[in-house]
Fold:
Amino acid sequence: MNRTYESTHRSDIGDKYASKQWRINQNEFRDILIDEYINANVKLGYMITRTYYYDDVNRDEVVTHNKRMNAVIDDLFNPRRRDEYIIGKKHFIEQHKPSLDKIKPIKIKNTILDKWELDWNTDIKPGKYHVHSLLTEIDDRLIDKPNRKIRKTMQELYGDDPKTDKEEVKTDLLNQTLRKRCQFIGNSAQSLYIQNASKYLMYDGYIGWKGLVAYVTKTMYNVDMIDTVYDNINSTIYK
Structure:
């Protein structure tokens, strides 16, 4: 008899892979992450997706960039490391599939047709990286009574006409400071995208913010993939 796993957080969507071991592994890991947020009594606030615009980057560099990103966020919102303003961060590293890269054409003789033809030298090009980072909520008090660095950034963004929507302000602050202080983030809209967890609908049967957890774990279905995708060094919801 095939074993199945009934997730406590997933809606019944009639999953045809429910009895597959990879699906069981995946949903068990998803529920562990979701329970971690619930048990810590913190709420998921944002998913930040950054895509590398250049090719020559490896996973170790990406992990170093995750560390830098954590430091930049904390330096803006919680420079004194006060417990009530802690922003938890978890990073999930994905690599695109490799592709064939045409290098240059070479001339070869087609002996069957007795004529010269052009052929291409090809090389396997490693897939580019992108990272999904889950952040817990940013306390409203940081916007109501901003510190010096937040005030300065808000002045850069809005001048003397600040926005009144606090969630928009938080997203703008994240976008501005990460682009300004993380040189590995490009200038295009595709280089950095911030999704508000409260506006996320569903993914793979997981609703709302839980859907973001499901989305960032979509390739995490065995131990090797968990180790490859999850940045265990720079991920925590407690600091």
Notes: The chain has a mean pLDDT of 90. Residues 50 and 192 are 4 Å apart (CA to CA). The chain has one domain: 21-229. The first strand starts at residue 44 and ends at 51.
